[in-house]
Write a structure and sequence with these properties.
7% of the residues lie in helices and 48% in strands. The chain is mainly β. The strands form 5 sheets. Strands 3, 4, 6, 7 and 8 form a 5-stranded antiparallel beta sheet that branches. It starts with a helix and ends with a strand.
């Protein structure tokens, strides 16, 4: 019995945590300290906080991977959820390892917008597209994150003539197409943008840099 107890403890999953970007949510965990870790199989369950019964996640039942996609299981974004993982090796099962409570709306990370840049000789037109959630409208298109939050676009210009790290905020608001005027011909400019959520005072990462020479 003691050997089984040792094995149970040695394979028990560690650090069970949710990772979420634009409501694409996966559960991650670390293996226990068993030397045979690569032969261990994992079993994932989830539930809404306050419910008594756990649901099995069928696609993550007896898997060797240490990541499980729960995007569509926890799609009620205002609800707090828990998940838990147990491990099995050679017919011995570990105890369950519990995640922290996770509320998608509060805790998902919002990604940067997509940025397209079109230039004329003295101006740059910037087209912005909000990141999309995994959830679909009836017609099949993915719902943008701006449907779930009051989000603003922040657009920054980097004048490569100056110090590269010097980003100047040129626009903040909800317009998807903006024009930056009175720029100098022959100068290379780069544009980056991010999403900003005033209510929670959160910002996304910067978008990838779009550069153009006027």
């Amino acid at each position: 019995v003691l050997e089984n107890q040792d094995l149970q403890d040695s394979i028990k999953p560690q650090k069970v945590e949710f990772h979420s970007l634009n409501f694409n949510t996966t559960l991650h965990w670390q293996p226990g300290w068993a030397r045979e870790a690569r032969d261990v199989l994992y079993f994932v369950q989830y539930k809404v906080y306050g419910q008594s019964t756990w649901q099995n996640k069928d696609e993550c039942w007896g898997i060797s991977s240490r990541v499980c996609d729960l995007t569509h299981e926890i799609s009620d974004i205002q609800e707090p959820y828990y998940s838990r993982v147990r491990a099995a090796l050679a017919g011995v099962y570990s105890n369950w390892s519990l995640s922290c409570r996770f509320t998608p709306w509060r805790e998902t990370v919002i990604g940067p917008p997509m940025v397209t840049v079109v230039h004329s000789n003295k101006s740059i037109t910037v087209k912005l597209q909000a990141p999309r959630s995994p959830y679909k409208r009836k017609r099949g298109s993915k719902i943008p994150m701006t449907n779930y939050y009051d989000l603003l676009y922040q657009v920054f210009i980097i004048n490569n003539f100056l110090d590269v790290q010097h980003r100047i905020l040129v626009y903040e608001g909800k317009e998807k197409v903006i024009k930056i005027q009175d720029l100098r011909p022959g100068v290379s400019y780069c544009i980056v943008a991010k999403m900003y959520m005033p209510m929670l005072d959160h910002s996304s990462a910067y978008s990838s840099r779009q550069c153009t020479m006027l």
